[in-house]
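User: Some background: our group keeps a shared notebook of sequences we're curious about, and every so often someone picks one and asks for a predicted structure to add to the entry. Today it's my turn. The entry only has the sequence so far, pasted here. Could you supply the structure so I can complete it?
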Amino acid sequence: MRDVAIVLAAGTLDGLLVLSVLGQAIALPVAFALHAGATMLASIAMLHGARDTTFALLSGLAMMLAGPAGGLIAILQMAALHLMPYSHRDNQAWLRMLAGSNEPDQAEALYEAIAHGRSFRPGSAPKSYAAIMTRGTVAERQDVLGQIVRGHRNYPPALLRAGLTSPDLAVRASAAAVYAKLRANEADKAATASRVPS
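Assistant: Of course. Here's the predicted structure to add to the notebook entry:
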C-alpha cells in the first residue's frame, strides 16, 4: 500500500508538470529535471525496505520513461503481483532452473518419496570407516573425518592416523584440522573437570 501511495504521488506530480508545460508555466528542461528528480526519489522510497527490488526498479523505469502513464503501469503491475499466488517452492525451482543446476533438491526428493509412499530400499551395507579411510575417495575420507569431529562418541585412533598418513594432501590437512579440534575439545573437557568441586 505504501508503494501505491508513492507511485500516486509521483504520478500526480508528473501530471501537474505536464499541465504546467502545456500551459507554458515552466520551461520543458525544468519540468524534465523535476520529473527525473521526483521519479528517482519515488524509486528510492520504494527500494527502502522492499522485499523485491526488481519491482521497485521496474516501476521507477516505467515512471521515468512514460511519466504519468508509467505510474499507471506501475500500479497495474502492483495489482497483478498482489493477485498472483506466490509459492516458495516454485520460486526455488525457478532459481535452480536459472542456475542451470541439474541436481535434484535432496530435501524435496525426500519429501516426494515420503508423500508418494516410497520407502528406502537399502542396496548394500554401508562401508566401514576403516575401509573408507584405506580405499575411499578423497571426498569420502574427508566426510569420515567430518563425522569424527562432529561425532559424540569416540572413534578408533587408527582412523585419524590413517588420515594423517594419507598420501593425499587434502586428506592430511583435514585430518590435522580434526586432530587440532579434538585436542581443543579434550582440553576444554579437562579444564571443566578440574573446576568442578569434588
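Suggested note for the entry: The two ends are 65 Å apart (CA to CA). The chain has two domains: 2-83, 129-189.
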